[in-house]
Design brief:
By secondary structure, the chain is an alpha+beta fold. About 35% of the residues lie in helices and about 25% in strands. The N and C termini lie far apart (about 40 Å).
């Protein structure tokens, strides 16, 4: 293969629009899950080719935290944040630390699913 031109990536406006759409889809999935699933200490939300992981070693992760996080990520992405990440978040109401990470999933992982530590 011979590349004739290599760009550093998508323009920020396009990347942020695509990622904002992804976070909106995750937010909608979280709304559905919050109606039927109990909070757990770990969950993974796979939509399209990305996976958003939440993990807390000391307490269950409340759906309100996940919803608030998704709204914050939609806003941040609209302002230009387009990175993959692994973050340590403090949840004040439960006084716990929650690890959140976004990554690209491999072709072997099923897309568009929700998993938690209960094996869902």
């Amino acid at each position: 293969m011979k590349f004739l031109y290599v760009d550093s990536g998508l323009p920020v406006q396009i990347a942020s629009a695509l990622l904002a759409d992804y976070y909106q889809r995750v937010y909608e999935r979280v709304i559905e899950c919050a109606r039927t699933l109990e909070p757990t200490k770990a969950m993974s939300l796979k939509i399209l080719d990305m996976r958003l992981d939440f993990q807390c070693e000391t307490s269950v992760i409340h759906w309100d935290f996940v919803k608030s996080f998704m709204i914050a990520m939609i806003d941040a992405t609209k302002r230009g944040f387009t990175g993959r990440f692994r973050a340590l978040m403090y949840h004040g109401p439960t006084e716990t630390m929650i690890v959140v990470g976004l990554r690209i999933i491999s072709s072997q992982e099923a897309a568009d699913s929700t998993e938690n530590n209960a094996g869902l």
